[in-house]
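Take a careful look at the protein record below. Let me know whether the structure tokens fit the sequence:
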Amino acid sequence: MLPKSETLFPVTLPDGTPYPGTVFLANATRHANIHIGAYTYFSTFAPESEPENYASRIAPYLFEGAKDHVHIGKFCQIAHGTRVITTGANHAMNGFSTFPFAIFDAAQIGAYRDSFPKGRDVVIGHDCWLGDSCTILPGAHLGNGVIVGAGAVVGGSVPDYAIVVGNPGQVLRMRFDPTTIAALNALAWWDWSADTLAKHEALIVGRDLTALLAVDPTE
């Protein structure tokens, strides 16, 4: 049974108590520049008893009102230590020193931050699995169904259903052939209702594409 999308702690222990180390991230993040789809979860070995805001864990350099945003799709699985680095982490590099003197002066810090050009938003597609302690770099675009290996450092554009590993991140292989990838993207099962998802869970995690494509999500 799929928990309701508004649940904070979606994993229940055998004794009936909620497990605090896994949260549906949209319900534990309050940040105007971070946009997270339903059912995307984040797991941590250092949980808070009542997490109010995981924004600093996911995107520690992103301040509200910044030029860039972070968009994470539905049904993503985000492991402990994963971080999204945004352009707010930059230092000016056009002078002799990169030391950010301006951030220590309240009168200058706003203009200093605004001096950086706007880069691309970070976009992470639906049903992506981000492995332990991986790093997503400013402007990265990850397609649907991407798997990022543990410790990988990923920038640029990663195609749908690719497996990317290493530093710098490189595509190790594609999970499926182009026809299957196109069919999965067109199907967009992540947009189905909770009832339809629950009814066809076995097909979604299985390997019978013909049967999955035969599902009528309006039934």
Summary: Residues 33 and 66 are 7 Å apart (CA to CA). The chain has six helices and 15 strands. Residues 178-219 form one domain.
